Amino acid sequence: MIFIRVDGANIPEIGMGHLYRMMALAEKINQKLGVSPLFVITGYEETIKLLSQNGFKYFVVNKEKSEVEEIIKLRSLPEKDILIIDKLNQDPVFINELKKHYTVVSFDDTGGGLKHADVVFNSVLDSNVERKNLYFGEKYFLIRDEIGKYNPQSKNISKTVNDIVINLGASDPFEINFMVANWLSDFEYSGNIHWVIGAAVGDKEKLIKKINSCKCNVLPIVDCKNIGELYFNSDLCISAAGFSLYEMACVGIPALSMCLYRHQVPTATKFEKQGCIFNLGHYEKIKKEKFETSFLKLINNESERSKMSLNGKKFVDGLGMERVVTQINQLFN
Predict the structure, then answer these.
(1) Contact status, residue 167 vs residue 236, Cβ threshold 8 Å
(2) According to the model, what pLDDT value does residue 127 have?
(3) Which of 139, 107, 108 is closest to 314 using CA atoms?
(4) Stretches in the chain below the pLDDT threshold 50
(5) How many other CB atoms sit within 10 Å of the CB of residue 319?
(6) Which value, in Å, is the radius of gyration of the alpha carbons in the chain?
(7) pLDDT reported for residue 11
(8) Please, are residues 38 and 1 in contact by the beta-carbon 8 Å criterion?
(9) Residue 321: which of 199, 141, 159 has the closest Cα?
(10) All domains of the chain, ordered by start, with CATH?
(11) How many other β-carbons are positioned within 10 Å of the β-carbon of residue 215?
(12) How far is residue 314 from each of residues 17, 31, 37, 178, measured CA to CA in Å?
């Protein structure tokens, strides 16, 4: 049996990215290994809704009991099951207790998971750490098939930017969408802006009313199901600097990105150094003037956008999901 410990919510430091990618991993595991993982969750409303809508089974941890004991009681066999944990900064004691009963696989945890899990996948790390079973770097980032299929395809970078995507995350606890909408309220642009509103973004009606008041031609898209196709057919993206950095690079869409959390800053810096994006930095330090200047610079610079597109596709090849499932298959057998 395979268990996945993850959460998703429209609150700071959790967001929805980890949940979405674990759902994609669960689908691929089921497809390749014939095993349907059981999700182990805290019980946030957003998590339960999304898992239920997509047909995944889940177990809600009782907050009044020990989480370790709650997870241990789920074991189905005398030998160790596989427990995948996609949560940041886990306590070493927590990991080591679970290792007594499970083969623990950690994703992107730079705390207890990195040091003590049996197997570690960390797409954020740039260099090896002295330990066994560590798979690091962007080539192990979990790209969904719906996005990865566009990497080998030739993406057109037009001289004129006709279609822009705004994708600021599946959740928005800091109301960044409203901030960008205010910046664009009097921005004059003759093309189309496809504004992706994540499933866990709060007060969607108010946000849609706000973005529709912009002078630009804005097309709101709630809970976009074909983000890969949208990236592929668009010319530029304004994005958050979360997991979408990898997805945009894979497809080859140039991007103007902003960090919502402090831990995103090093990753955004890395992508900028690779020539994939223009990094605005942490949202608290971004002024409207800097945003507009950078935005217009990219719109008017076809050469720079072309370089970003090619650099991104080289940097993230979209095969991370296959690499990860291959390693998990070895553990399962």
Answers:
(1) no
(2) 65
(3) 139
(4) none
(5) 15
(6) 20
(7) 83
(8) yes
(9) 141
(10) 2-143+318-332 (3.40.50.2000), 147-315 (3.40.50.2000)
(11) 11
(12) 23, 27, 32, 33
Distance CA 97, CA 55 (A): 30
Q: How far apart are CA 229 and CA 146, in angstroms?
A: 8
CB-CB contact of 209 with 26 (8 Å): no
Scanning the structure block, which residue is given the tokens 């945009």? Answer: 248
Contacts of 123 (CB under 8 A, 6+ apart): 108, 136, 137, 138, 139, 140, 141, 142, 246, 320
CA 155, 160, 161: angle at the middle one, nearest 5? 70
List the structure tokens of 330: 């070895």
pLDDT digits (tens, 9 = 90+) for 231-273: 999 999 999 999 999 999 999 999 999 999 888 999 999 999 9
**Predicted structure pTM score:** 0.91
Give the contacts of 301 (CB within 8 A, at least 6 positions apart): none
Q: Is the separation of the CB atoms in 307 and 275 below 8 Å?
A: yes
Using the structure block, give the residue that is written with the tokens 């599946």. Answer: 170
Do the Cβ atoms of 29 and 56 come closer than 8 Å? no
Contacts for 46-53: CB closer than 8 Å, 24+ residues apart: 46/8, 46/9, 46/10, 46/16, 46/19, 46/171, 46/199, 46/200, 47/6, 47/7, 47/8, 47/9, 47/19, 50/8, 50/16, 50/19, 50/20, 50/23, 50/199, 51/23
Quick one: tokens of 327?
């390693």
Q: What's the start-to-end Cα distance of the chain, in Å?
A: 11
Question: Taking phi first (over 0 means left), then psi (-120 to 50 degrees means alpha), and beta for anything else, what does residue 153 get?
Answer: beta
